[in-house]
């Protein structure tokens, strides 16, 4: 059984059937890409995993537990971290403060009234955050205001914030959207590096075929709210149905 | 020291020194001189500086850190005052039980109002708090008359039980408020040359509590809890997807700031043992918003400066009347004098609110970071003059994130 088991998920917005009958299984320690043309329901599906949307039908099980009906913070505490299409970071805070927040969330849970401790005194958490910043090559930017950084750095910071929590599953929603080629390649290298260094499962939603084929171990192709095929990258490349529905149209 | 960094400890000691020396600092002009009306070193006003400073510090924990703008904080001030006066009526004229009850009751009150209001954010939150405060005001004014004594306001009388203290003082009056015998109204007057400095027990009592309140808020600003509150202000989405529940954090901030307001209300009643419904009116809620914004939202010193600034000018401008204006402008030719006075009198006396409105607009337009930002700009200019020619080009250096409290 996979780490994330999606069975018969359907979601309707008014007259639009965004997701039909999605079955999907993300195996542990794999990078699983979900691709598909615009409007295929990729983001809707992802939002069903993290508690932003509740599907009308079907079930989403993570690590043997249902995530349906849980709030985003509860799902994060179960071990799912999410990277957004446009980086969501704490813009008014500096990089180090951005890193400390997920460290506290991981150690102390969803709420703790730690009003009489000092952030700097949490030596082991500071160390952990700094190590993570070293891993993503951002340690020299630790005092920088997060909002003043480039988009590539914001993305890098957001990933570091997710990874410092040691999530069981990392969800990436078009991590290279709007990036220049060089930044895209950097992101691919970063993700590869992360993959090598630690046991982590990733589910990626992506438009950029270059990214998908350099990272993914399994690919699910979504079209009009239903999965077309699920296979290895090699097989997907040559699949006639996929060519027709997606690659043919996009390239 | 005291769980603070070196810089913060220094900062705290500066605040303590300034607070202790306030009766001297605010009395820069000799008695009887033309400028002596600008002196502010008298007990009543100094007590207000400290008390409204506490009120604004607490408000800043909610508004400055989380960005939730409450328009109903005067309700907690009022609740605190009523609770304290009831203690004076039932228990004794010692201020301590009154203040403790004020904090507890306003905290519970804030818990209920916050629980409901924090279901919404932004303008809807502000409107909800405003509605709750106006509701409390109207209840205090009418329905709850047995508790609040309605329009007249709650006062201590000779018939009150005061089971632990004196019912009637030796001179036949209601005994004065005191702190284990130290009367709040008692003052030590020291004449030095042409000056006269008043060291008032009530002021120093408020000042000690204000410093404690300041210290607590400094600790909260530097704590992980404070970090979470600032995170709520910048990006609640990220916070939720990072595994943190923002609701209890905002509620805790709301209750803490409500307790600060209750403490301020209790102190107001301790200095002058009466409580009226007008203390809960929306104008009073607006005043603390003005203080915080004027001084600098989210900074440590800002709210205190703002509170002092508003209370000082309120007092000074309200005192100036037509006679004073005549004295000032008597050097002008008659026609011009009449005109200048006609313009000026709208800005002084009861027209002080016009001045405060203009000041507020100027600050928001030219100094969005409040008085603290003004101070920082002046400081930067002085520094630049000193190190002129250093080649230190601020624009070509990456911007460092500013520390919260400057």
Q: What features would you describe in this structure?
A:
The complex is a heterodimer of chains A (251) and B (406). In chain A, the strands form 2 sheets. In chain A, strands 6-7-8-3-9-10 form a 6-stranded mixed beta sheet, with helices on both faces. Chain A has a 4-stranded antiparallel beta sheet with strand order 2-1-4-5, covered by helices on one side. With 251 residues, chain A is α/β, with parallel strands linked by helices. Chain A is 38% helix and 24% strand. The two termini of chain A are 35 Å apart. Chain A has 2 domains: 162 residues, Rossmann fold (3-Layer(aba) Sandwich), CATH 3.40.50.300; 76 residues, no CATH class. The C terminus of chain B is likely disordered. Chain B is mostly helical and 406 residues long. Chain B is globular. Chain B is 63% helix and 5% strand. At the A-B interface, α2 and α3 of A face α7, α8, α9 and α10 of B.
What are the main properties of this structure?
heterodimer, A: alpha/beta, Rossmann fold, 4-stranded antiparallel sheet, B: 406 residues, ABC transporter involved in vitamin B12 uptake, BtuC, disordered C terminus
Secondary structure layout:
The complex is a heterodimer of chains A (251) and B (406).
Chain A: E1 4-13, E2 16-26, E3 31-35, H1 42-49, E4 57-62, E5 65-66, H2 72-78, E6 80-83, H3 95-108, H4 123-135, H5 151-163, E7 169-173, H6 181-197, E8 201-205, H7 209-215, E9 218-223, E10 226-231, H8 233-238, H9 240-250
Parallel strand pairs in A: 3-8, 3-9, 6-7, 7-8
Antiparallel strand pairs in A: 1-2, 1-4, 4-5, 9-10
Helix pairs in contact in A: 3-4, 3-5
Chain B: H1 6-25, H2 43-66, H3 74-90, H4 95-117, H5 122-141, H6 145-148, E1 154-155, E2 178-179, E3 182-183, E4 187-192, E5 195-200, H7 201-222, H8 224-234, H9 236-240, H10 246-271, E6 274-275, H11 282-295, H12 302-319, H13 322-328, H14 334-344, H15 352-366, H16 370-386
Antiparallel strand pairs in B: 1-6, 2-3, 4-5
Helix pairs in contact in B: 1-7, 2-7, 2-8, 2-10, 2-11, 2-12, 3-4, 3-10, 4-5, 4-10, 7-8, 8-10, 11-12
């Amino acid at each position: 059984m996979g780490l994330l088991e999606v069975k018969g998920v359907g979601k309707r917005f008014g007259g639009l059937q965004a997701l039909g009958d999605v079955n999907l299984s993300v195996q542990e320690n794999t990078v699983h890409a979900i691709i598909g043309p615009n409007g295929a329901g990729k983001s809707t599906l992802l939002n069903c995993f993290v508690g932003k949307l509740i599907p009308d039908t079907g079930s989403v099980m993570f690590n043997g537990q249902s995530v349906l009906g849980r709030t985003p913070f509860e799902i994060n505490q179960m071990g799912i971290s999410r990277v957004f299409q446009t980086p969501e970071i704490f813009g008014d805070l500096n990089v180090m403060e951005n890193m400390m927040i997920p460290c506290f969330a991981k150690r102390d849970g969803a709420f703790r009234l730690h009003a009489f401790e000092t952030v700097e005194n949490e030596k082991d958490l500071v160390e952990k955050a700094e190590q993570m910043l070293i891993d993503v090559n951002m340690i020299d930017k630790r005092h920088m205001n997060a909002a003043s950084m480039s988009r590539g750095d914001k993305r890098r910071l957001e990933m570091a914030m997710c990874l410092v929590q040691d999530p069981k599953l990392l969800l990436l929603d078009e991590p290279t959207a709007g990036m220049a080629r060089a930044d895209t390649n950097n992101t691919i290298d970063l993700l590869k590096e992360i993959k090598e260094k630690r046991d982590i499962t990733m589910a990626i939603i992506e438009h950029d075929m270059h990214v998908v084929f350099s990272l993914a171990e399994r690919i699910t192709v979504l079209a009009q709210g239903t999965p077309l095929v699920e296979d290895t990258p090699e097989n997907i490349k040559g699949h006639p149905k996929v060519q027709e529905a997606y690659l043919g149209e996009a390239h | 020291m005291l769980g603070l960094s070196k810089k913060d400890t220094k900062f705290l000691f500066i605040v303590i020194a300034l607070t202790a020396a306030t009766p001297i600092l605010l009395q820069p002009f000799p008695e009887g001189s033309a400028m002596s009306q600008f002196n502010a070193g008298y007990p009543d006003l100094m007590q207000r500086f400290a008390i409204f400073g506490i009120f604004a510090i607490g408000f800043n924990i909610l508004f400055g850190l989380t960005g939730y703008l409450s328009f109903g904080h005067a309700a907690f001030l009022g609740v605190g005052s009523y609770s304290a006066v009831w203690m004076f009526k039932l228990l004794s004229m010692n201020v301590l039980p009154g203040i403790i009850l004020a904090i507890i009751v306003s905290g519970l009150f804030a818990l209920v109002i916050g629980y409901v209001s924090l279901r919404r954010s932004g303008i809807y939150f502000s409107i909800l708090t405003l509605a709750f405060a106006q509701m409390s005001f109207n209840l205090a004014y009418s329905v709850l008359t047995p508790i609040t004594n309605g329009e007249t306001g709650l006062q201590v009388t000779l018939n009150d039980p005061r089971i632990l203290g004196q019912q009637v003082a030796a001179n036949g009056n209601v005994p004065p408020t005191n702190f284990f015998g130290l009367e709040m109204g008692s003052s030590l007057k020291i004449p030095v040359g042409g000056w006269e400095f008043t060291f008032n027990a009530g002021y120093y009592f408020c000042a000690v509590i204000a410093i404690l309140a300041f210290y607590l808020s400094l600790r909260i600003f530097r704590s992980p809890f404070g970090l979470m509150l600032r995170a709520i202000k910048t990006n609640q989405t990220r916070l939720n997807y990072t595994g943190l529940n923002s609701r209890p954090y905002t509620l805790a901030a709301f209750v803490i700031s409500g307790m600060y307001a209750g403490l301020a209300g209790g102190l107001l009643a301790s200095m002058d043992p009466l409580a009226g419904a007008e203390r809960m009116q929306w104008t009073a809620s607006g005043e603390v918003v003005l203080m915080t914004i004027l001084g600098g939202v989210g900074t440590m010193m800002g709210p205190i400066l703002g509170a002092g600034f508003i209370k000082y000018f309120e007092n000074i401008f309200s005192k100036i009347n037509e006679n004073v204006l005549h004295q000032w402008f008597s050097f002008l030719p008659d026609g011009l004098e009449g005109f200048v006075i006609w313009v000026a009198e709208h800005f002084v006396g009861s027209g002080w609110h016009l001045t405060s409105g203009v000041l507020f607009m100027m600050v928001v337009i030219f100094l969005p970071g409040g008085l603290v930002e003004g101070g920082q700009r002046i400081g930067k200019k002085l520094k630049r003059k000193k190190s002129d020619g250093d080649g230190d080009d601020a624009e070509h250096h990456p911007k460092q994130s500013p520390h919260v409290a400057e």
